[in-house]
């Protein structure tokens, strides 16, 4: 099951955390994977090399800042056509809603939302021509339970869900599936400092019915389903990976 042999994938923001776990899972199942990071191509290449050694797969490292308006063009020039696009990279800032500065607003809207559209516009046409493709956008449980200090981050993820549902309906006839994962509290480098505060950790734990923090691999298993032939009849879906946090 979940055989991705002969497929190519781009996973943005994949040198750590959820993106890394998804890239590793894809490589283990025969997929050629492009590891992406914001600016340090040497870091991306090192991670790609390490994963190639540990998985036996074919991986390459690329870097470009998704804040830029030409992000779709630039990444495509480095990868060419892919069968699977995972829009995972994002930025988030903590700030009260009435104190959000313009630069934080622009960064989150451009990196989280605009780049998702730009990448989809660039990569999906070849999927349509081949009549096989998978797009997986990484959202957040904050679409249902927005953090009080992450109003723009949560709003961009909600916008991506709307885009996911809209395009999924239009692309289903081409055998191009567009879906979304909505992770909850996951043990990743992004969350490590906040979760190191025992008081904050307890507040978070009290909101998770399953009673524990998730791991990045909890997301990669779902990504394999949605990006393989086994997930052929799933499109326009938003799958929570959150231990029930959204309930």
Task: Give structural attributes.
alpha/beta, Rossmann fold, 8 helices, 7 strands, globular
Can I get a quick summary?
With about 250 residues, the chain is α/β, with parallel strands linked by helices. It is about 45% helix and about 15% strand. The protein has a single domain, classed as 3-Layer(aba) Sandwich (Rossmann fold).
Describe the model.
By secondary structure, this protein is an alpha/beta fold. It has one domain (8-241): Rossmann fold (3-Layer(aba) Sandwich), CATH 3.40.50. The protein is 45% helix and 15% strand. The protein has helices at residues 17-28, 41-55, 71-79, 102-130, 151-171, 189-195, 198-205, 216-226; strands at 8-11, 32-37, 59-63, 84-87, 133-138, 176-183, 238-241. Helix 1 (17-28) packs across helix 8.
Q: Helical residue percent?
A: 40-55%
Name the structural class: alpha/beta
N to C succession of SSEs: EHEHEHEHEHEHHHE
CATH architecture assignment name = 3-Layer(aba) Sandwich
Low confidence ranges: none
Layout of secondary structure:
Blueprint lengths: L7 E4 L5 H12 L3 E6 L3 H15 L3 E5 L7 H9 L4 E4 L14 H29 L2 E6 L12 H21 L4 E8 L5 H7 L2 H8 L10 H11 L11 E4 L6
Parallel strand pairs: 1-2, 1-4, 2-3, 4-5, 5-6, 6-7
